[in-house]
Design a protein that fits this description.
With about 300 residues, the chain is α+β, with helices and mostly antiparallel strands. It folds into 2 domains: about 5-155, no CATH class; about 165-290, no CATH class. It is built from 6 helices and 12 strands. The chain has helices at about 5-30, 45-65, 120-135, 165-175, 250-260, 280-290, and strands at about 65-70, 80, 85-90, 95-100, 140-145, 150-155, 180, 185, 190-195, 200-205, 210, 215-220. The strands form 3 sheets. A 6-stranded mixed sheet has the order 1-5-6-4-3-2. Strands 7-8-9-12 form a 4-stranded antiparallel sheet. A two-stranded antiparallel ribbon has the order 10-11. A hairpin with a 2-residue loop joins strand 5 and strand 6 (about 150-155).
Length: about 300
Amino acid sequence: MDANATPDDNRKAALADARRTLESAAHFTRGGGAPAPDHDADHASRAGRIEAEQRRLIQWAKENGKLGPGGRRPPVFAGGGEHNVFFQKRTQRYIKATRLDRHKGYGIALGSLTHGATPSEYLDRIALQNQIFEDDIRLERVVENEGQPIIITSQPSIKGHSPTQDALNELMLGKGYEKLDEGAYYDEGAGLLVFDLFPRNAIQAADGHIYPIDPVIQRITPDFGPVPAPRALHHQPALRQPFTNPKPFPRSSRSILNSSFILLPSSFPVPATHGPSNNGQLGVLMRKWTSVGPTPSHPAAD
């Protein structure tokens, strides 16, 4: 580190290094090439991709000094649908470990035929969060568990309060995203869907800056949409109401809404209290995935 550098210079250098590490890990893990949507792949293809990416991620971690001891786990501070979390006082950062027992082991991802992210998609999502929201999420290490890598990242502790949903809408519209439903936004030009962005998943600091803590960010294509739905919600006809909005969505947005509608497992109870909106197919999906997290002084566990 440059002895003549200012604290801001050092922070920018640390952020750049953290982002290069995430991008390197994601690139190697997916086998090279640019990240691309994979939401229309079937279960067998996704399972095979995950196994191959797990092997490559472990290899990358070994070669880059990021493979942690196999028996080492962070003590759990909080648990959610995607991560186990604990607070590290020394660094004032929250440590987050992916959960192999949830989704496909690497967080949420929507799909036409199956859901759950691959290791490289998860790493790409974290890199995108740093890029879009100027966040400081770092890849700390990878822990191997019977041949399956657990990804451990860290995120700074931020003091503040929950922003309003209107403030989050303003934030995303200012970044060029179209609002699909409460907490869900789409940038067709970038091919990015951001969802689960509710007040409980964000912090507004004293200076007014809003820090989304754990939004789900996924690369999608504009035609991500209708496919046969063998497990449609026939047992919950009340949820089949069409999405209502005074401003018609473009065709691409309607396709996203249609595709997300079929993702709910028929056995999953949909909480009526999650999310401010009770209408819309994408709104139903958001309520399925989200859960009430901890207070907004630290990252949510999901």
